[in-house]
Amino acid sequence: MRAFAWAAILSAATVCQADGGSSSPQEFTQIERGRYLSILSDCSGCHTVPGGKPFAGGRAIETPFGNIVSPNITSDLETGIGTWTDDQFDAALRKGIGRTGAHIYPAMPYNAYTQMSRDDVLAIRAYLNSLQPVRQSRNANTLPFPFNIRSAMAVWNALYFKAGDYKPDPAKSAEWNRGKFIVDGPAHCGACHTPKTLLGGDRKDQYLQGANLQGWSAPDITNSRRAGLGNWTVEDVATYLKTGHNRVTAATGPMAEAVDLSTSRMTDEDRAAIATYLKSLPGKDESGSAPVDANVMAAGGSIYRDQCSACHGIEGKGVPHLFPSLADSAMVRSNDPTTVIRMVLRGARSVGTKGEPTAPGMPSYGWQLDDRQVTAVLNYVRNSWGGAAPSIDAGRVTRVRSDTASRSD
């Protein structure tokens, strides 16, 4: 693991020695390493309710099978993990086996965390143990039968889970290997960006090519030119991970939270490694899209000029690091238009970070535009300025409108 906040570590070690040496610098190093690994793993994203006590759990994680409520992972003896042994903690994170021997649902991405080493996992535990324990019970999961039968996870594991530490590829650079380890291991990017089977397992033949979850569509993050990162540079990717913004786009929705809690707090070296790895992934070959009806394009162009061009420009280029470039946006041209439909209907606010604190937002147009008008403007945006994407029909917009209306987020 790379160097972290060594000044803080040495300062803490000095205080400790002045107090009689009850702890060693090595222990502080392990705690700081665990703190950073918890950032790479985005532990706070699931185990902290917004505005709640850190790592005290209680957040409902939406899955296609029902909601799973995250547990308290503070060191509280009664409601947390204070009585767990190191072996039990390691088995939970890297093998998906709980303290009682029951299977853990893969909403906790043990199928990715398995690539971390035991030392990595125990460093995370040391960090969690260093925090103030919180006594907080959690509500029960809301999984219907038969998904509430944990023993069935043995079948899921046989199909989709293979335990084992990350094994570097000797033919690749250290930076590439570091990036792949983070993406496939602690950062568990595939949990959102890899399409899933009916049973919730990864479709490995569509690795990181985008997926639909929690009312959003996570984009393709391979090097596809139309739908992925093919038109981004390594620097573009790293800047996006650091600030939530770059010359093309801005992070919103679940990715905004991931940037806020995880990627913006990583080291520059790790963000560059992630970018190097993602840019090495070949994009899927794309076939041409059928032309959109000329009347739809004309109607969409009129709406765009009236409602969108003030921020995004007549040519769709936006303002770098402020308003996304629709002409260059792979998300806009994604095969799954859920996110862009949702953003037009409900609006969105981008993430604010130390590097880009403004956090500009997009207003909602769902009250102003009907489903046919939303369809027209999105088909115009997706197929203008040299872009091409599959046509959206009004029925798709109607379904997304209905889904978003039932959500509080």
From TrEMBL:
<dbReference type="GO" id="GO:0005506">
    <property type="term" value="F:iron ion binding"/>
</dbReference>
<dbReference type="GO" id="GO:0009055">
    <property type="term" value="F:electron transfer activity"/>
</dbReference>
<keyword id="KW-0479">Metal-binding</keyword>
<feature type="binding site" description="axial binding residue">
    <location>
        <position position="312"/>
    </location>
    <ligand>
        <name>heme c 3</name>
    </ligand>
</feature>
<keyword id="KW-1003">Cell membrane</keyword>
<dbReference type="InterPro" id="IPR009056">
    <property type="entry name" value="Cyt_c-like_dom"/>
</dbReference>
<feature type="binding site" description="covalent">
    <location>
        <position position="192"/>
    </location>
    <ligand>
        <name>heme c 2</name>
    </ligand>
</feature>
<feature type="binding site" description="covalent">
    <location>
        <position position="308"/>
    </location>
    <ligand>
        <name>heme c 3</name>
    </ligand>
</feature>
<dbReference type="Pfam" id="PF00034">
    <property type="entry name" value="Cytochrom_C"/>
</dbReference>
<dbReference type="GO" id="GO:0020037">
    <property type="term" value="F:heme binding"/>
</dbReference>
<feature type="signal peptide">
    <location>
        <begin position="1"/>
        <end position="18"/>
    </location>
</feature>
<protein>
    <submittedName>
        <fullName>Alcohol dehydrogenase</fullName>
    </submittedName>
</protein>
<feature type="binding site" description="covalent">
    <location>
        <position position="189"/>
    </location>
    <ligand>
        <name>heme c 2</name>
    </ligand>
</feature>
<feature type="binding site" description="covalent">
    <location>
        <position position="46"/>
    </location>
    <ligand>
        <name>heme c 1</name>
    </ligand>
</feature>
<dbReference type="GO" id="GO:0005886">
    <property type="term" value="C:plasma membrane"/>
</dbReference>
<feature type="binding site" description="covalent">
    <location>
        <position position="43"/>
    </location>
    <ligand>
        <name>heme c 1</name>
    </ligand>
</feature>
<feature type="binding site" description="axial binding residue">
    <location>
        <position position="47"/>
    </location>
    <ligand>
        <name>heme c 1</name>
    </ligand>
</feature>
<feature type="domain" description="Cytochrome c">
    <location>
        <begin position="29"/>
        <end position="132"/>
    </location>
</feature>
<keyword id="KW-0408">Iron</keyword>
<feature type="binding site" description="axial binding residue">
    <location>
        <position position="193"/>
    </location>
    <ligand>
        <name>heme c 2</name>
    </ligand>
</feature>
<feature type="domain" description="Cytochrome c">
    <location>
        <begin position="174"/>
        <end position="282"/>
    </location>
</feature>
<keyword id="KW-0677">Repeat</keyword>
<feature type="domain" description="Cytochrome c">
    <location>
        <begin position="295"/>
        <end position="385"/>
    </location>
</feature>
<dbReference type="InterPro" id="IPR014353">
    <property type="entry name" value="Membr-bd_ADH_cyt_c"/>
</dbReference>
<keyword id="KW-0472">Membrane</keyword>
<keyword id="KW-0732">Signal</keyword>
<dbReference type="InterPro" id="IPR051459">
    <property type="entry name" value="Cytochrome_c-type_DH"/>
</dbReference>
<dbReference type="InterPro" id="IPR036909">
    <property type="entry name" value="Cyt_c-like_dom_sf"/>
</dbReference>
<keyword id="KW-0349">Heme</keyword>
<dbReference type="GO" id="GO:0016614">
    <property type="term" value="F:oxidoreductase activity, acting on CH-OH group of donors"/>
</dbReference>
<feature type="binding site" description="covalent">
    <location>
        <position position="311"/>
    </location>
    <ligand>
        <name>heme c 3</name>
    </ligand>
</feature>
